[in-house]
Amino acid sequence: MNRAQNAPQPSKLTRNLGLQGRNTFGFDASAELAYEITSAEQIPEVMESIAAQKLSWRVLGGGSNVILPKVLPGATLLMNIIGTEITSSNQEHSLVAVGGGVNWHDFVSWSLDNDLPGLENLALIPGTVGAAPIQNIGAYGIAVADYIDSIEAFDAHTDSFVTLPKSACHFAYRDSYFKQHPHRFIVTKVVFKIPKQWQARIHYADLANQFATNVTPSPEEIFLAVCKIRTRKLPDPKVIGNAGSFFQNPIVPNEQHETLLGKHPNLVSYPDAPGKRKLAAGWLIDQCGFKGERMGNVGVYENQALVLVNHGGGTAQDILGLAKCIQEKVRKEFGVSLEIEPNIL
After folding, report:
1. Is 341 a catalytic residue?
2. What span, in angstroms and rounded, lies between the C-alpha atoms of 261 and 255?
3. pLDDT digits (tens, 9 = 90+) for 13-44
4. What are the structural domains of the chain?
5. Taking 80 as the threshold, does the pLDDT of residue 261 lie above it?
6. What is the mean pLDDT of residues 268-284?
7. Verdict on whether the full-model pTM lies above 0.85
8. Active site residue: 11, 152, 176, 341, which one?
9. In terms of Cα–Cα distance, which of 275, 249, 251, 280 is closest to 264?
């Protein structure tokens, strides 16, 4: 086979591509230039073209954690790299390499089908595998960082591919080295390290209540329970536009927590790092009276105050205006700052 036959297919370029179906808020947005990335090998040529034209750029996966403006200027790289493979396995763990464009929930389901439990608490989180470590997604007591071995990415600063071990990813609550260095890395593959020794993690209230009479649920039972709970609490983006949890749960020192608890005995919080507590942002917002409120075409979901929704026809400006009102009220009532979780592009 000659060199030409081995060369990767060039990335497909589309001008003024509509993105309403590629962001879970359902905002009517478009990309001036959209490059479809189906293999890592396409990236250097695309980035060379972007640099030559001096274009701004960003990566878009499932669009589940972004707030899109009416028009995305410059270049948008659509992450569509797929593929899931068990690369090694021993008595202690299995390594699984997954393309950055694979749907996250589909991968969680695949892991259970292939007798690799551990990720079931993260079921039904929208988005792609490549985006998961950037935000260090988490739910019901676990974070994706708990199961990551390494990450392969294109480094736009050095124009080269790199493999970062977990220790170099600087994972923290809803944070990572990738998030700290935006517009630098394009995650192409995530290698997961799934332990063979599995233990149910059902200490969070919703799961604990679900399994009050079954303290030894199977991974599949936890998976189904998480899907049921999330479906009950969170709106389906296909029905009503949203990006899931809109604010991060704020972390405060124990002293501040004790002061707040004295004023608000029903305050919902969880242990965090030594000397700190994590407050439930949804509870804070609910106490400020925002649950179910509507502001024009956007609002706060009636079943979960942590979720902001687009009822139809809403824009990034609308949702950010609502978010600002919520932040100001929570700061005034509790002295706590809420940080927006989705990326504002």
Report:
1. yes
2. 10
3. 999 999 999 999 999 999 999 999 999 999 99
4. 3-79 (3.30.43.10), 84-195 (3.30.465.10), 241-344 (3.90.78.10)
5. yes
6. 94
7. yes
8. 341
9. 280
Q: What token pair was written down for 12?
A: 């497909």
Q: Are 195 and 92 in contact (CB under 8 A)?
A: yes
Say if residue 7's pLDDT is above 70: no
Contacts of 16 (CB under 8 A, 6+ apart): 30, 31, 32
What's the CA gap between 136 and 144, in Å, rounded?
A: 6
- Given a contact cutoff of 8 angstroms between Cβ atoms, the answer to whether 217 and 203 are in contact is no
- Four-point Cα dihedral 285, 286, 292, 297, nearest 10: -10
> Looking at this protein, which amino acid is placed at residue 143?
A
What six digits make up the tokens of 293?
């409120």
Low-confidence winner among 87-91, 144-148, 269-273, 308-312 (lowest mean pLDDT): 269-273
List 58, 174, 184, 201, catalytic entry: 174
Any idea how long the chain is? 345
Q: How far apart are CA 254 and CA 260, in angstroms?
A: 10
Kindly report, residue by residue over 198-245, the tens digit of the pLDDT.
999 999 888 999 999 998 999 999 999 999 999 988 999 989 999 999
**Containing H/E element for 46?**
helix 43-52
Burial 215-247 (b: 16+ CB within 10 A, else e): eebebebbbebbbebbeeebbebeebbbbbbbb
Question: Which of 150, 245, 269, 277 does the annotation list as catalytic?
Answer: 245
The pair of structure tokens assigned to 238 is: 């296909």
Neighbours of 257 (CB within 10 A): 19
